[in-house]
Amino acid sequence: MKTNRSSSTLGEFIKSRREQLQPSEAGIQPLPGRRRTPGLRREEVSYLAHISVTYYTWLEQGKEVNPSPEVLLSISKALQLDEDEQKHLFNLANVDMANIVTVPNNERSDARVLQKIVDQLHYPSFITDEGTDVIAWNRASELIIADFGSLSDNERNMMNIMFLQPDYRKRLVNWEGFSRYSIAVLRASFDLYKDNPLYMERFERLIQESEEFKHFWQLYEIKQKRVATALFRLPDAQEMEFVLHSAAVIDNDPGLHWCFFVPVSGSDGVC
């Protein structure tokens, strides 16, 4: 297999981290025999990462150029990489960390800072975490989308709001099409969150309490997140159409997602 600069650099990086990590720090018993190199052996890293020694050796030697996100995540855990080092590893492999589930960020952005971000926009805008909990929103989103401030922290979840809050269905004119698309997006990443108890608890509740959610889920449609359109009925009974855009990895946190609404030209007098 052809070696390229990126794979060679990746191999050099994980080798350097392997040589810095001692077996005692990794929580394993050293393999018998005289240790000719500092730090962990390749066999020990492969054991910790649950991958074959041959495959790990190829990575260090630059012979494997397309490691999967799961393999990279396993290696980063085995080598005890910190957040910056893990991101560097994924960059070397040309893999987007926003598409995988990572350990929750214990240094998540200050909620007050996130609130200032959404408050800058005139039209609806909110920020969610990886479980679609709404953690910051502006006044326009309360008036047009949902009264987030009146909901408890446990209920302020976009999937719950979409399927379990009747008021939201009254506001969103194209509710059926948009909710079906949302389920297809959820399907695309669902397997990544199966080990999250809270995520699965909410999923089971939706299956049990919403016939529409259950029906759309059983269609087994798959969609990647893209620009979508939503038509909302305003408090004065007029209708306004928005194009929904989203941005991920706010403040280097892959679990945060920023959704902002851009009114369609000509919708309710918007030029």
Overview of the structural elements:
This protein has 271 residues and is α+β, with helices and mostly antiparallel strands. The protein has two domains: 5-95, lambda repressor-like DNA-binding domains (434 Repressor (Amino-terminal Domain)); 111-269, Beta-Lactamase (2-Layer Sandwich), CATH 3.30.450. 45% of the residues lie in helices and 14% in strands. The chain contains 13 helices and five strands. The protein has a five-stranded antiparallel beta sheet. Strand 1 (125-128) and strand 2 form a beta hairpin. Helix 3 (42-49) crosses helix 5 (69-78). The longest helix is centred in the first third of the chain and has 16 residues, at 5-20. The termini are far apart.
Q: Mind sketching the topology for me?
A:
Elements: H1 5-20, H2 23-26, H3 42-49, H4 53-61, H5 69-78, H6 83-92, H7 111-119, E1 125-128, E2 134-137, H8 139-144, H9 158-164, H10 166-171, H11 175-189, H12 197-209, H13 211-218, E3 228-233, E4 239-250, E5 253-263
Antiparallel strand pairs: 1-2, 1-5, 3-4, 4-5
Helix pairs in contact: 1-4, 3-4, 3-5, 5-6, 12-13
Summarize the structure.
The chain has 271 residues and is α+β, with helices and mostly antiparallel strands.
